[in-house]
Amino acid sequence: MLSHLISQVLDLSGTPPPPYLLRYQPPPILQQPPELPSHSSCLLNLEDDQSEDDCYNLVMKAGKFEMLEPGIGPPSKRARKDSTQGKKLSETSVPNETMESEIWKEFPEDLFENVIARLPVATFFRFRSVCQKWNSLLTSNSFSLQCGQLTRTQPWFYTRTHENVNTGAMYDPVSRKWHHPNVPVVPTNKIVLPVASAGGLVCFLDISHGSFYVCNPLTRSFRELQARSVNVWSRVVVGMTANEKAGGAYQVMWVGSNGEYEIYDSRNGTWACPGAMPACINVPLSLNYRSQPVTIAGCMYFLRSDPDGIMSYDTETGIWKQFTVPAPVHLREHTLAECGGRIMLAGLLTKNAATCVCIWELQKMTLLWKEVDRMPNIWCLEFYGKPIRMSCLGNKTLLMLSLRSKMTNRLVGYNIARKEWFKVPNCVFPHSRKRQWIACGTAFHPCLTAKA
Prior knowledge:
single chain; 4-stranded antiparallel sheet; 10 helices; 34% strand
């Protein structure tokens, strides 16, 4: 282009070009990358999106840069002959279907179960329909061992709605999706509510007859517990613990306001009353029935009032303790929670017309609640001047809070470990557009091999 421009100038002037210009060959000019709009951006998205691939190719075409480690030179260009041989080799090494089936036939069984155990729970249940072998993994002892060696995933939430009190809905916070079981896990002719969970199992209480049920919501492993030895028709608080080292054995405990309590042990299948409430604990207990107890290192903690504080029961030694912990000022609608061995408190803080959800942590040295976080102010403005009721649907590391008034019903989640607030999508049943109002629920760690 430069020599062409010079020749045109010399033609206009009538002067022949000098010999050195005829011998000069200008270097090739690098092609300028296309300019991108200042407002364009490329975000990483795990979903398949063609626009994302186009954006990625556009950026790569603008400049193909590669980071090199210090002390290592740029890769040398491979000869044409080598590249051609590599291309022919890759073309001829594509396995056919017969070869692939031969390889997968010899795949080690233990490695196969190890891979399947690491799949997301929802993905595993979709894969169960592939063949009978995959469907039978739930009853395999070796597969149970593989699942037991894995670290626990984030808890799911099992809930009941006002419109369908006998139909459950499960929420997966990882995929942010609601799952609706096709077959009920508990009897539908009774009002049965989830009240506790442990070891991948959920405990249900029949509020009309006082019967207890335990089941795995994922596999529908179900058991109706033995009838209680005493008739306690008053309101009770129910807790549950599980011992994974004892082959998945679990205990269910209920406590009444007058100090009565019983413990069910799955190893012998009976209810037992270990002893009477010690005299150091004030009776009646004034338990907070809206707060589910939490279990930390074998101790079960209950929230009580009058006086405000916490009661604990050691499931191994059978010792009761009582701690006086003053409640925060202007607190109402509060519930216990736990995260990493810490006792937490979530509740509504109301002053004048303003309402906010706050999170406290119990200081073990001073036995005082210390505020560690609160809901964003822009979310609190929605509830300004409205009488709000709060229900906690899960208190294990992840919280799901149902905030409702006469005209609004919001589901808010909170990650205690990360101090992150997030909004939970509305619960809508399949083939319906009506939003369901959540009545109650509990958090449980999804476990494919837990048996009732």
